[in-house]
């Protein structure tokens, strides 16, 4: 059994080397060093570095019942949108002495449950859930009963709670108005098979706007697939069936998959068909032609989520916060202006 | 202070509801349920689900001095190579009741140190370091003194230790031999400004092969940049200065950046210049033309790393393992055959 245990450097080892008491070491390392000589303080800090002494966190967390940890559940760490979102969370967490426990659920319910339980076992102080949780009330029940606050970024909470919203309905409207202005009336949409609330709103804003302009989009032209490059690629054939002049991909990953499918079908973007995406991941500027899309502030969504959950951890009774972040349309080269067609 | 604490469901709450003793609940939840009635066992499990009771992990880990955690440090979670590598680690960790603590260091030394300390504080049982650690002997010192085994995937260990190698020297050779066979003699290389050991070997295999064939590549044609899409994009102008017929990008992300720069320069791949990459990330099949590259088994590298570190945690005295994983060249459409040029 010995070999399976981690043998950490102990505070007693450090005290012995420094020839002072454990209490002295503890006080110096906790910043209460004004009662000791500069020489002693310096010596203790030097030895900490040299010996690699790190205070045992679990002893503290057992007393405080806090792991200074935020559990973060995202659907797909392979999507650049989420890696920027995670970086935003990381930066705020670090500034506050917390660390994010990052989990990619890959839309797998078994993994979701596993990670949820593991976060609680490890005394997570709060959770940020950006994953398409299959059963929100189950999550709500288990987290509430353990007194762990949580934030859902892409779904409606079971009861009133802090929310972040990036104006998805408006984003859908912007793209629809833009396409209509460019003369597009026959369009297809490629969306997720199991859309989260934010995706439903994005789609509704798009469909409502086309309908209001007298160009309703039939259900047959809303194709459901996986929210990935491969999903977009696989959906291409079906999206092209009725020869749309433009296709709205519900996120940029799907758009990149459509680019591949369209290229393989021997068609050209935007000459033969126009494409718009959503998110503004960095790849939109690398693919040819550059993708017209809606910019979401992914990093800022991460920092905001982290700030909200940390504030909620500190004060469970504070007023509920609903933060809305701005989005904007980024016009690039993937949409043809049909008003000037030959 | 009360509000800052997490109020977990306690085993006593569950015992009270189940009308049995705490010992009974504990034994049933630990699988020692053969001495109790089926009805009691069923009731306890049902209440665990309903009440959301999760055994307190920190109490256990304080005794065992183990967080059942593997700290994982990667340079860049935005690179799809690393997201697949992380998924490999995740899958093995989960099968063994561990979780990975995932950190993206972004080649930032301050973040590296922070995460290293936080991993130790949280009683990580082992660490997998795939990041370009600036000072390996510092890491070695601090982890060794805390009795935490670690695995470096892209760098040489300070002392003999478990290693994973994906034949980087051979990968460089394969690409060079392929380009030479296609008639390329004047090539440029775009690599990392602070290359890890694996990148150095990859580059050496490439340069040695060209030299052996009588086409030495001068230092001026080895351009150093960041190992990202943006780094490749920024390096394009310099890479094109002496009109190479082909460019070797040390990873696929750099290659994607070169694609953008070359397109903006009004040149065509592979007609005007050929490109080869390294890693075989999924994007290589989405960009046009599809990228010729070396396939690295990223997921398998993750599972192997996790298996090695778990075995080392279980038995610190086991024989040192050196695992070598196979790679292969994936021929796509980004290299022109100059033997058939008009």
TrEMBL record, chains A, B:
GO terms for molecular function: DNA-binding transcription factor activity; transcription cis-regulatory region binding. The keyword DNA-binding applies. It comes from the Bacteria. It holds the Pfam family Peripla_BP_3. SMART domains: HTH_LACI. Keywords: DNA-binding, Repressor, Transcription, Transcription regulation. InterPro entries: HTH_LacI, LacI/GalR-like_sensor, Lambda_DNA-bd_dom_sf, Peripla_BP_I. The keyword Cell cycle does not apply. Residues 9-64 form the HTH lacI-type domain. CDD domains: HTH_LacI. PANTHER family: HTH-TYPE TRANSCRIPTIONAL REPRESSOR PURR-RELATED, LACI-RELATED TRANSCRIPTIONAL REPRESSOR. NCBIfam families: lactose_RbsR (NF047341). This is Sugar-binding domain protein.
């Amino acid at each position: 059994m010995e070999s399976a245990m981690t043998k950490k450097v102990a505070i007693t080892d450090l005290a012995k080397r420094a020839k002072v008491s454990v209490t002295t070491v503890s006080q110096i390392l906790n910043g209460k060093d004004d009662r000791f000589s500069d020489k002693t303080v310096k010596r203790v800090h030097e030895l900490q570095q040299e010996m690699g002494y790190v205070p045992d966190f679990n002893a503290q967390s057992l007393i405080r019942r806090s792991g200074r940890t935020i559990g973060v559940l995202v659907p797909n760490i392979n999507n650049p949108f989420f890696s920027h979102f995670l970086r935003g969370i990381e930066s705020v967490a670090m500034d506050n002495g917390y660390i994010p426990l990052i989990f990619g659920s890959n839309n797998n319910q078994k993994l979701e449950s596993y990670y949820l339980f593991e976060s609680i076992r490890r005394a997570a102080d709060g959770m940020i859930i950006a994953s398409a949780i299959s059963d929100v009330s189950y999550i709500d029940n288990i987290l509430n009963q353990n007194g762990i606050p949580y934030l859902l970024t892409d779904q409606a909470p079971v009861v009133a709670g802090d929310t972040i919203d990036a104006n998805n309905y408006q984003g859908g409207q912007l793209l629809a108005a833009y396409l209509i202005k460019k003369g597009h009336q026959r369009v297809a949409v490629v969306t997720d098979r199991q859309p989260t609330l934010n995706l439903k709103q994005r789609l509704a804003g798009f469909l409502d706007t086309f309908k209001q302009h007298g160009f309703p989009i039939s259900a047959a032209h809303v194709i459901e697939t996986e929210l990935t490059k491969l999903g977009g690629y696989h959906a291409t054939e079906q999206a092209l069936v009725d020869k749309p002049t433009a296709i709205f991909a519900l996120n940029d990953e799907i758009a990149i998959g459509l680019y591949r499918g369209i290229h393989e079908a021997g068609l050209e973007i935007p000459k033969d068909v126009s494409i718009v995406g959503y998110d503004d991941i960095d790849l939109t500027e690398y693919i040819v032609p550059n993708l017209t899309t809606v910019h979401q502030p992914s990093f800022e969504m991460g920092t905001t989520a982290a700030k909200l959950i940390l504030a909620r951890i500190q004060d469970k009774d504070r007023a509920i916060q609903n933060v809305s972040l701005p989005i904007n349309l980024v016009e690039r080269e993937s949409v043809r202006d049909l008003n000037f067609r030959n």
